[in-house]
Design goal:
Number of helices: 16
CATH superfamily of the largest domain: Bira Bifunctional Protein, Domain 2
Structural class: alpha+beta
Mean pLDDT: 89
CATH class of the largest domain: Alpha Beta
Largest sheet: 8 strands, mixed
Number of domains: 2
Distance between the termini: 51 Å
Number of strands: 16
Strand content: 15-25%
Strand order of the largest sheet: 1-5-6-11-10-9-7-8
Length: about 450
RNA sequence: GCGAGUAUGGUGAAGGGGUUAACACGGCGGAUUGUGGUUCCGUUAUGCUAGGGUUCGAAUCCCUAUACUCGCCCCA
């Protein structure tokens, strides 16, 4: 035993049991289905890219967290998000793509940072973006929340709220306070408000040596209360004289107004001036989404508008808007909070247990079941007890037992594993009997 | 990158220097050679992350390494 290698999985890498994997895949499929229902195209890009491409814009953090290695003379890296590969993709195929370019991409990304609760080194991102050529209609800023809305409705994991803000409002506001030079630090602090609370925000702002009167103004500003309409009106009526600020307010006003016409429930979205988001490239509308019943989970989906996607690869101006769902973290959190129903995730609808060597007879049944779209598992084990136990552990709702006695009578036994009821079926009525029993139970 | 903590079978774990490492779950075999999720019986770590030290004696105390967990930074 000593010379065996311990079969372990690296920290920060999620590996699931089959039952869990089914659930995970269900969530992934729901997201994918909603994305494509809005007319977005799927793309896939390599997990490995040349470091030169991936690190073209390289902030300090990215460089620290990226998995980078050499193979021969090649300097390679694992992608750490799906946005940079998108930028490369669009820049290199600019002449062939149709704009506005609507794509989604679901795939694994890698970050070489220390793993923590709900923080992974390999995780799925589910990205969706629209990229415009030179310009991009603000209507796409409205479409994005609508997509989020549909996804979280379909995921069926409880009530949720999409929080919306516009970076121009914050930028303009801080410009008017003459704090432009520290805007990155301030936004970072404000963004943490949900986590650390308003008092700590104030404290950290004091640490930045911002005058108290300005801190009061900031706190008052970001905690504006009221309905969406009231908040907009307060912003429109404010005495802040700043062009960027006004532009932001108008954009936000436009987005909020149009969300109504997209048939979204007003309880599921709100203006939240504390959302700062992605301190790098977001320039306009920004979004975060939280589960109302589980605020401690933090944002489960976030994104926004950016002016220029691919400035490191091309001179073309490519504005875009999009979101990303961190599916691995979301799934992890949903499991931790017992929001997902982990029961009854058998792949097969029916498990067939052959107690005979006359497989030809068995396969006739199997073919019939599969032809009708029933997922049918056939098990080959020596003993009936093992067969039954297999079906039991797989939580298959139904089993079919076929032994030599049944073959003699030209039947099979359909067993409902929940009720224990057994019915004799023939090849002609097996599907009907199955469906009848299934419907009776419901 | 910085800080704190933990390390015992497939899993959850007890044992805090004294001869065979508790208990539970799971697994396997059987009671029950055509019927599971109940019950009963048997079985399941020559070893306590690795290496070194203290000791007559170490899973237990000390040191080093590694891994893992949790914070911070940052982020999905």
């Amino acid at each position: 035993m000593k010379d065996k290698v311990v079969p372990r999985t690296l920290s920060g890498f999620m590996e699931l049991m089959p039952q869990e994997q089914i659930l995970f895949n269900k969530l992934k499929k729901i997201i994918e289905d909603v994305y494509s229902s809005y007319g977005f195209y799927p793309i896939d890009t390599p997990v490995i890219e040349s470091s030169e491409v991936l690190l073209a814009k390289a902030g300090g953090e990215t460089e620290k967290q990226i998995y980078r290695f050499n193979k021969g003379d090649n300097d390679l890296s694992l992608r750490f998000d799906l946005t940079v590969p998108l930028a490369k993709y669009v820049a290199s195929r600019y002449n062939d793509l149709i704009f506005p370019f609507k794509r989604y991409q679901i795939g694994k990304v890698f970050r070489g940072e220390r793993a923590q609760k709900g923080r992974f080194r390999e995780f799925y991102q589910c990205d969706i973006d629209v990229i415009g050529n030179e310009t991009l209609s603000l209507m796409y800023d409205c479409e994005i929340p609508s997509i989020i809305y549909d996804i979280f409705k379909n995921l069926n994991i409880g009530d949720f709220i999409i929080r919306i803000n516009n970076r121009k409002i914050l930028s303009g506001f801080f410009e008017s306070l003459d704090l432009t030079n520290m805007i990155t630090e301030i936004l970072r602090i404000i963004d943490k408000i949900d986590k650390i609370g308003i008092d700590n925000v104030r404290e950290e702002l004091i640490n930045l040596k911002i005058p108290t009167d300005k801190i009061d103004k900031i706190i008052n500003f970001i905690t504006i209360e009221g309905t969406n309409e009231e908040k907009i009106n307060k912003l429109l009526e404010s005495d802040i004289k700043n062009d960027i600020f006004n532009e932001g307010v108008n954009e936000l006003n436009f987005v909020i107004k149009n969300l109504k016409s997209l048939n979204m429930n007003e309880n599921n979205y709100e203006i939240d001036l504390t959302i700062a988001r992605g301190l790098d490239y977001y320039t306009g509308t920004v979004y975060e989404t939280n589960l109302k019943d589980y605020p401690s989970l933090g944002s489960v989906c976030s994104g926004g508008r950016y002016d220029n996607l691919a400035s490191y690869y091309t001179d073309k101006k490519l504005p875009g808007v999009g979101i990303s769902i961190g599916l691995t973290r979301l799934f992890y959190q949903l499991c931790e909070s017992n929001i997902l129903n982990k029961e009854e995730n058998s792949v097969a609808d029916i498990t067939v247990l052959p107690l005979t060597y006359n497989y030809e007879y068995v396969f006739n049944f199997v073919r019939e079941l599969r032809k009708k779209g029933l997922k049918t598992d056939v098990v080959y084990l020596d003993k009936l007890k093992q067969l039954i136990k297999y079906a039991d552990r797989q939580k298959t709702p139904y089993v079919i037992i076929i032994g030599d006695d049944e073959i003699q009578k030209e039947i099979a036994i359909l067993k409902n594993m929940k009720t224990g009821k057994q019915i004799e079926v023939t090849i002609n009525n097996v599907v009907d009997v199955y469906e009848q029993d299934l419907n009776n139970k419901m």
